[in-house]
Amino acid sequence: MADLLNIGLSGLSASKTQLSITGHNISNVNTPGFSRQDASQATRTPQFSGAGYVGSGTTLVEVRRSYSEFLTAQLRSSTSLSSDVEAYKSQIDQLDSLLAGSTTGITPSLQKFFSALQTAAEDPANIPARQLVLAEAEGLARRFNTVSDRLTEQNNFTNKQMAAVTDQVNRLAGSIGSLNNAIAIAAANGQQPNDLLDARDEAVRQLSTYIGVTVTPQDDNTFNVSVGTGQPLVVGSTVSRLEVVPGQSDPNRHEIQFVSGSSRQGITSQITGGELGGLIRYREEVLDPTLNSLGRLALAVSDQVNSQQIQGLDLKGQVGTALFGDYNSSSLMGLRATPFSSNTSTADASLRITDTQNLTISDYRMEFDGTNYTARRLSDGANITVTQNAGPPAYLSFADSAGKDQGFTVAISGAPNAGDRFSLQPTRRGATDIKVVLDQADQLAFAAPVRAESNLQNVGTGVISQPGTTDSVDMAALKAALGSDITLTYNAGTPPSITGTGVTQVSPAVFTPGQANELAIEIDGRSFTFTVSGRPQDGDTFVIGFNTNGVSDNRNALNMVNLQTKQTIGADPSVPGSGKSFTDGYGELVERVGTLTAQARMDSEATGAILKQATDNRDSLSAVNLDEEAANLIKFEQYYNASAQIIQVARTMFDTLISTFR
User: How would you classify residue 218: left for phi > 0, otherwise alpha for psi between -120 and 50, otherwise beta?
Assistant: First the structure.
C-alpha cells in the first residue's frame, strides 16, 4: 500500500508540474522570444520482488525548451539584414523624391534660367528680360542651396540616429552581460535556466536589429558577442561599448569608436548589418557622392557662366563681371581642406579649384611622410600623384595614374609633421556656397567684345560676319590692343592690307570672291574667326574694332545659352565627347539614385520575405500553440485526477486492512 501510495504521489507531483509548465506556456504566449517548454519524465528505479521488478512510479528528468540554435541564428542574421536594408531604403526614398521631383529638383531651375537667357538674347536691350535672367539665376542658386540643405539635414539626422542606435546597442550589451552572469550561476546547478536563456536570445536578436553581430557560445553557457571584424562587445559578464564621436577628418561626419577599458578603436568602416550598418552604408554609397556630384554641378555652372560673362560687354560698354560668387575666395578654399584632429602639428591647408571640367565627385586623403606628400582618391582607392610646385606661392598639384589633372591645387600653411593627414573635399560645399552677386540687369554682358562691319563706301557686295572666339580673353588687354580700329582692304589675288595695331596675322592670307571665306585674325594673341562672303571689289574695306556701343549685340548671350548643351562636366580633352552637359550631369545623378532606390525596394521585399520565413521557421518549433496547450491542460488534468484516484485506492485498501484487525 505504501508503494501504491508513493506511485500515486509521484504521478500527482508530475502532473502538477506539467500543469504548471503548461500554464507558464500559455501565460507567455505573447512574450517576445519565449520558447515553449515541456518536461521529460522517466520511471523511478523499480523494486525487486520474488515475481520480478515492480515499478515505483515516475519522476521528472528536466524541464526543457523547444529550441534550435540554427533557427535562432538564422532569425538573428535575417533580422540584421532586414534592418540594414530598411534603414538604407527609408533614407534613399527621401533623396530620390527630392532629386527627381518636378518642383524640388535642379532641372526645372536650370531650364528656367536658360529659357530666360534665350528670351533676353532675342532682345538684348530689353531691361525686363535681363531682370528675369537675374531672377532665374537667383532661383537656380537658391535651388542648389535648398537641395544641399536637405542633404545636410540627412547627414545631421544620420549623426543623431547613429548616436541613438549606439545607446541602444550599449544598453542591450549590458543586458546580455548581466544575463550571461545569471545564466552561468544558474547553470552551475546542473540544469538549464530556460527563461534566462530565452531572455538572452531575445536581447541578442534585438541587438541584431541595430548592428550586425557574431555570437560565439562558451562552455559555461555564456555568449561572447562581437561586432565589426571581431571586436568583442560582450565577453561573459564583461561589456565594452560603442561611442559616436565627430570624425577626425570631418567633424560634421560622425564616426563609431569601439571603447574597451582605456583603449579606443575606430570601426565605422567595419560595421555591417542592422540599422547602424544601413545608415553608414547609405552615407558612404549615396549621400556623400550625391553631395559631391551636386557640388560639382554647381561649381561647373558658376564657372562656365562667369567665364562667359566676363568675355562680353554690358549695356554700358563695360567688361562683364561675374554673375555668381567667387568659389575660390579664401574662406571657401579653407573649408575644402581639413587637417585631421589627430595631427601633431598646427599646419593648415586650403584647396583652390583650377578646372571644374576635371573635377571628380570623390573626396581625397593626403598624407605627409616628412618629405613628400601622398594622396589617395577615396571613391576608388586610386593612388594620386602629388607634385610640389615651388611657386611662389607654393602649391601642390594632383594627377591620376594616367596623368590627368584632378582640377584643384592645395596650399599648405605652416610646417606639417610626418604622419599628418588632410581631408580634401573639392566639391562637397559647391551647392551650399553658390550665390548670385550681380544685382544690376544692365551689367549682364550680352555683347561680344569685337565688332566687324563693311565700309558703306564699298562698291562690291562683300559682307563680313561678326568675329567670334573660343579663347579666353583678357578684356583689358584686348581693349588696349583695339585702341584704334583695324581695317582690312581687299586686293584681288593678293593678301589684304591691314592697318591698325595688335594684329599679328590673317589666315588664309587670300580669300576668294563669290564664296564664304572662313578667316581668322589674331588680336593680342587670341584667334577671332569670321566669314567674308559675296564679291568684294578692289579697295573695299572692312573694319574690325572694339564693340564699345554694342547695345543690340547678343553674341555673348547666345554663347551663354549654348552652355546648356555644352559638354563641360567631367570632360577629358584627349577624348572627344567625353564630357556631359549640365542637364545630362544632373540627369546622371538622378538616374544613379533612382537605380539604387529601385534596388533598395527590391532588397526590402526580398529581405522582408527572408525574415518572415526565418520567423515562421523559428515559431513553428518554439512558439506557443494555444490549441496544443489547451489539449495538454485537459490531458494533465486527467493525469492528475487519475493519480489522485490511485491515492484514494491506496487509502481504501489501508482502511480495509485496519478494519480487519478491529
Answer: beta
Beta-sheet strands, E only, within 329-378? 337-339, 348-353, 364-368, 373-377
The DSSP call for residue 284 is I
Q: How far apart are CA 363 and CA 376, in angstroms?
A: 9
How does DSSP classify residue 153?
A: H
Tell me which residue of 482, 509, 507 sits closest to 496, measured CA to CA: 509
What average pLDDT does this structure show over 499-522? 72
Residue 316 has pLDDT above 70, yes or no: yes
* pLDDT exceeds 60 at position 340: yes
- pTM score > 0.85 for this model? yes
User: Phi, psi (5° rounding) for residue 575?
Assistant: -125, 100
Residue with cell 545608415: 279
Q: How many other CB atoms are there within 10 angstroms of residue 181's CB atom?
A: 14
Whole-angstrom Cα distance, residue 146 to residue 226?
41
Distances in Å between the Cα of 480 and the Cα atoms of 484, 502, 522 are: 9, 9, 14
In the predicted structure, residue 1 carries a pLDDT above the cut 60: no
- DSSP bridge partners of 425: none
Cα–Cα distance for residue pair 622/36, rounded to 1 Å: 5
The DSSP call for residue 357 is: G
Statement: residue 294 has pLDDT above 60: yes
Residue 225: name the closest of 216, 488, 153, 93 by CA: 216
